[in-house]
Structure formats: structure tokens, C-alpha cells
Amino acid sequence: MTRSSAEHRTRTWTGRTLHAGHAEGALLKLDLPLSFWGGAGHDGTIIDRHHPQCGQQLSGRVLAMTSGRGSSSSSSVLAELLRAGVGPAALVMTEPDAIVVLGALVASELYDLDTPVIQLDPADFADLQDGAWTRITGGASTVVQTITPGGRPS
Description:
The protein is built from 4 helices and 9 strands. It is an alpha/beta fold.
């Protein structure tokens, strides 16, 4: 469903909830999967120098990547990034990834932080616009993007 106006347009997709929660933030759409272990710094910055988005900040962003990558230690790194307040606000993926979901689940159980993880169909994922303000309603498996000139909608 798309609504258009001179100021903004809104797109809505429905996916599968892998971990429930509600969040919003600017979308960071990665060109390649990211391993949180060795790929994300303690300040929430992508530090993998081979990653195309090296230097980008994860903190408060809705992170979109096709899947996770790498070590099972990524779950504990993700949980600690969330605890420190420098992790992504939500994650959107095309493939379910038990390690990423486990990181969100651990952060929920240990720190009472509910970070939604949503699986979208690859065609819907391809339509996500990097940088657009994105709201996740994890219980309903809904991803909503509002594309506004200048960033966050009012």
C-alpha cells in the first residue's frame, strides 16, 4: 500500500516476526551481511574495514541486511551493543538467522530491551529505501517506511 503526497509517501510491508518489539529510526540498508563479532565496534560503528558500509553508525538505526554473517559470538556482541544503547533499534532480514535472533532474545531476557527482528520477503526487502524513516511493529510483523524530504517525518 502506498500513499503519496507532495510532502511524503508511506510504504507498508508485512513480514514474519522473529523477535517481537516496536522501534523506529532511519534505515541503514547494508550491501552485505555483517558479523557483529569483529564487524561492529563497542561504540556501535561498523568497523569491518572490508565491509562496504565501514564507518556507518548502527546506533538507533533500523538495520536491514539479508542475513547475519559469521561467528556464534555475534549474539553476545549484539546483546551487549543493545545493552550499551549503541545497537540497532531493529533488524530486518530476508533470511532467518538464529544467531541474530538469539542476541535480541538475550537482550530482552537479561536487560528488558525488546529489539524487533523481522523477516521480509526478498522482493519487499529490495524495495526498502536506505535512510528512510522506518517504523517496526514486531508483534504484527509490520514494516512501515515514510519517505520524507529532509529525514524524520513530523
